[in-house]
Design goal:
This protein has about 475 residues and is of the alpha/beta class. It has 3 domains: about 90 residues, OB fold (Dihydrolipoamide Acetyltransferase, E2P) (Beta Barrel); about 160 residues, Rossmann fold (3-Layer(aba) Sandwich), CATH 3.40.50; about 90 residues, no CATH class. It is about 35% helix and about 20% strand.
């Protein structure tokens, strides 16, 4: 156990969990996100700290079967199943019913029903969108010529962490130095802090958390393969939807005109497009038009429907590097799909992560220590999104020069605010803020990330607004 691991255990108590990679081998063959694994591990630790492996194994066999293909046959044979699973709720006004589907088990929405008594009992949990929960389901045998269906007869939301008190997080943060807190965050992402070369590399890695903690923050990360992009965005939070290649439709992402149902961007904090080079859209022109409006204003009109959301957008792509570990092509965005290779659209992204500065993931980076429970950590990030005090402090701390470009200014302030929430959540007034630290760790990185976007837009479009240097934002020392 490291010194920082011991301090995490002491300060955070029940919100801390001991990460032993050997314990997590029990999930082999079951594709579960980290927040589910942490919950299951933490609920199967004996009072003496020992791991109740056999008991968890029995739970997994009973509630998370490894052979999903047999679920439908077992239901039809009359078995009542209790499952901890990911499922998707959908409401049909035309049919006057609420259904669920379990994609991993081949159970379709057209074959299911959620009864009204459960919806009345869990009105905030059984609403449209992807969920995690423990459900008891049965197959209702058909009568006469009617088709049978799978019915949810009991439900418990997967909500191990209740509403958090943000002041508790602030009090905990105040007990760590800045260097210690950076290591807390690295370990919460399930990586060993000592595996990183220096603070610069750690901060670049932590930049991946910014769209988790700041609403409608839109970033691009280009990195060589093997730097952990997919893992971070696919495992750390149930509030993030990861799209891994393939064709993406406006109906699934934004709004389905036929069913009049909003898409996944309505229900998530962030949508991350992984392997962006392999993603295609069913209608490039339509998607480009939507994104321009949405990224600028947080809303866009589709037919007569006004789509609104606080969902951020993350583009994740690979980039080829030279022997000196630098991009082979100075036009970084040249490999993006055609829909994104337009300066007017790219200009609406707030910044870029230089993934080539990050280490390639190796076995030494896997955490074997005390850290924050992933479910707890994801709830902290989620709830910090609506804390407005930090943007007010940033407004007071930054001097914006006369005539500064509006998009640059919004982007710099938004990225700086996200950094502040992440690194200094205990600071709630300008008087408490160390302005030199804020400048070095929040403002200057925000300027640099935004300036990369400006430069890359200039490579695509020689328009004068992109060729001008970014405004000289400074610190207000008065």
């Amino acid at each position: 156990m490291s010194a920082i691991g011991e301090k995490i255990r002491q300060v955070f108590g029940s919100a801390a969990v001991y990460k032993n990679p050997a314990n997590y081998d029990i999930f082999s063959g079951r594709n579960l996100p980290s927040f589910v694994k942490d919950y299951l591990i933490s609920t199967h630790i004996a009072p003496d700290g020992s791991f109740k492996r056999a008991e968890l194994s029995r739970f997994l066999d009973a509630h998370i079967p490894s052979d999903n293909s047999a679920i439908r046959a077992r239901l039809r044979r009359g078995e009542t199943l209790t499952l901890l699973t990911r499922f998707v709720v959908s409401t049909s006004l035309a049919q006057n019913k609420t259904s669920f589907q379990i994609p991993d088990m081949g159970i379709k929405a057209s074959d299911t029903l959620i009864p009204d008594y459960l919806i009345e009992e869990y009105p905030d949990d059984l609403i449209d969108g992807e969920k995690w929960g423990i459900m008891k389901i049965v197959y209702i045998q058909p009568q006469d010529k009617e088709a049978g269906h799978v019915e949810m007869v009991k439900f418990k939301p997967f909500r191990p962490m209740q509403k958090l008190d943000i002041n508790y997080i602030r009090q905990c943060r105040a007990q760590f130095t800045l260097e210690e807190w950076v290591d807390v965050l690295i370990s919460a992402m399930e990586y060993t802090p000592s595996a990183f070369k220096n603070m610069t590399q750690k901060l670049e890695f932590l930049t991946r958390l910014l769209p988790f903690i700041e609403p409608r923050l839109n970033l691009i990360e280009l990195a060589p393969k093997g730097t952990g992009k997919s893992y971070v965005f696919g495992n750390l939070s149930k509030f993030v939807w990861l799209v891994s290649g393939g064709k993406v439709s406006r109906a699934k992402l934004v709004y389905d005109k036929s069913t009049k149902a909003p898409g996944i961007m309505r229900f998530y904090d962030m949508v991350a497009f992984d392997e962006i080079q392999t993603i295609t859209f069913s209608d490039n022109t339509e998607m480009q038009s939507f994104l321009k409006n949405y990224l600028e204003f947080g809303k866009a009109t589709i037919d007569n429907y006004e789509f609104m959301s606080e969902c951020g957008l993350m583009l994740l792509g690979n980039i080829l590097l030279s022997e000196n570990n630098e991009p082979l092509n100075y036009k970084y965005f040249a490999t993006l799909p055609e829909v994104f290779r337009e300066s007017a659209l790219l200009d609406r992204f707030h910044g870029m992560i230089e993934g080539w500065l990050l280490p390639r993931v190796n076995v030494d980076m896997a955490l074997h220590d005390w850290t924050l429970n992933v479910e707890f950590f994801s709830e902290v990030l989620h709830q910090m999104r609506t804390e407005s005090v930090y943007s007010h402090i940033v407004d007071e701390a930054i001097v914006v020069p006369n005539g500064a470009d509006m998009r640059h200014t919004k982007a710099v302030k938004k990225v700086a605010t996200a950094y502040m929430k992440l690194l200094f959540p205990h600071v709630t007034s300008i008087d408490q803020l160390d302005l030199d630290e804020f400048n070095a760790l929040c403002l200057q990185p925000a300027i640099r990330r935004r300036d990369i976007v400006r430069q890359q837009c200039s490579n695509i479009d020689a328009e004068a607004s992109f060729s001008k240097p970014i405004p000289e934002y400074t610190i207000n020392h008065h």
